[in-house]
Amino acid sequence: MATFLHRVGRWAFRRRRTVVLAWVAVLAALFIGASSASEASEDSSSLPGIESQQAFDLINERFPGAEADGAEARIVFVAERGQQVTSAAGRSAIGELVEAVADGPQVADAAGPFDANAVSKDKSTAYATVTYKVAGDDLTDASKTDLTKAVEQARDAGLTVEVGGSALETEAAQGVGEVLGVLVAAVVLLITFGSLAAAGLPLLTALLGVSISLAAITALSSAFGFSSTVGELAMMLGLAVGIDYSLFVVSRYREERAKGHEPQEAAALAVGTAGSAVVFAGLTVVIALLGLSVIGVPMLSKMGIGSAGAVMVGVLIALTAVPALLGFWPNAVLSRRDRKGGRRTRTKILSPIRTKTAGTTTKAPRGVRWAQFVVRRPLPVLLLTVIGLGALAVPSLDLRMGMPGDEAKSTATTERRAYDALAEGFGPGFNGPLTVVVDVKKAKDPQAAVTAVSDKLAETKGVVSVSPVRLNEAKDTAVIAAVPSTAPTSRQTQDLVHTIRSERTAVESATGADFKVTGTTALNIDVGQKMQDALIPYLAVVVGLAFLLLALVFRSILVPLKAALGFLLSVGAALGAIVTVFQQGHGAGIFGVDETGPIMSTMPIFLVGIVFGLAMDYQVFLVSRIREAHIHGEGPGQAIVTGFRHSAQVVGAAALIMMAVFGGFMTGGESLVKMVGFGLASAVFFDAFVVRMAFVPAVLALLGKRAWWLPRWLDRLMPRVDVEGEALTQQVSAPRDLPADDPRASVTV
Fold this sequence. Notes:
Number of helices: 25
Low-confidence stretches: 342-361, 736-749
Oligomer: single chain
Number of strands: 13
């Protein structure tokens, strides 16, 4: 592997114009394809294998012309304090609104509050329901404008009017996440390298990779059903890994130049060594992302595929475009002191402890001193790390999964105000009614069967009201709405759904009718259960494949096992932090969280997949340098120190960049995006700065030489990938002789 990539790096450096032009041509072609492609679709709500989806499909089949997921507007009217919506003026304003929207070409039905018994007991609140023939994304601007004008006219009549539902869903405020992440990354790179060119090159190549990935996703959106969410996730991950992968190659290039290698050879060595680590780190990320396909949720599968493609683009650019650009400016990426022949910066790279130059003594870098501290006290560091991360993970035991709705939005939105008004006027469960679809095709007496199901629902503890039965034209399917007494995201409502479903067998035996429970509340419960059931198989697939890959890279059994255990610690701590902030509300105001509630159902498995791949980045980059020192003859403790000397600062910079990119997405207004950004940023922090910088060296120090143990029979079976570049030491010519007046000639190590 290292030898092949060494040739790739040399070729890219020599053929730099061809390489750069090829990437520019790819970008141009994809932009042309993207400009002519149809607009990206919205996220599909299809979730095969769950009862809620089966019920939706049955409604679409038996009630033609009215999609189960068609847009809906719930218009809430609140009278002024001390007055009632049933007053003559209120009735007139509400009636005019319903008549105005009922004639719309996309409107399927408009039910006023007085005809549908949709007035609260104290007559202070009422609501009208407007159902559309199409989904919210397919509503025309004319339909939305008609609804908005009608609402404004009712407000002018003196009523407080708010609109919930999907018809006029407020767009989340756009943050400055991408810009903020790039700015922080630029600062970190500038501090790390001390050179504008060295800081700019990883940013340039990362932006190139993200542009290519987004253009490809847009061009393929219609053919593969990629939604806008796929592009957002690909941009987030592509930007983070793209900067990091280029960062590692540039850092190794500077290191090889410091050893005296010519620019072309330094670029080839950087790609052969750091590039090998990039390849295997990228493969672990791709495995984790493609593993999302085993869950059986099409939306997650597409997100994984799109993001995996972005990661692979980042890998290819790091292996080809980076050495090509280094060929144009071979000295520009060096620090100013290095370009002038100074040696102070380089001595930090070469000396494990202290470097003497012209009678002076330079203090060892912080990474070296920290590694020496851990090597001397591995057990206390290990215990403190495990106990600390374990304590942070404790809140995750209280994890409640769901899909936060309007209740999680800011009170500045009309959806949130409508939600609060309905909860106050009609009870907390009114915002999450359960839709029960009754199939009476096989019933001997369909009408009696439907009545029996309705009566059974009304008698169920936890149900406060049941709507009148709505039959289809064939009279073989009925829809009933049951309103719980508790909020949509409460545990009691979840228990109620399970209770209703548990009565199905008895009802079917007695009446011959079958029924299924759906609606947004039931759908969220089913998705959460599906994610929970898929978590263990997903972990087994991802961790198993990555274990084999890391065993191949490090030729060890214990090192991959340690990597997996450290990953579980970091993910547990990150999930605990998410629960603490977004569910329990501790520190929610600091992060701009307007309302606490359940954790997004896909968040745990999403966090596991992405963070596993990113965590293995640091594992490969850090431990490969430790193994490189070990196979070159250093003892276990000294190899750890040497590995940290070469990689601790770069790994820390890479982690800060990823945290900046992910944390920047918290500046947006969407609660779910904030949750994802916070979760990924905290997971990277725990993994890079706690697990990889403390847990990993402590375990390696305790294991000693046993860390690299591999059964002989397995050693013979496994191919050698040489990620450390050991074969290159015998093929590459020694660095050029340094002139006597060069400051590097006086360096003693």
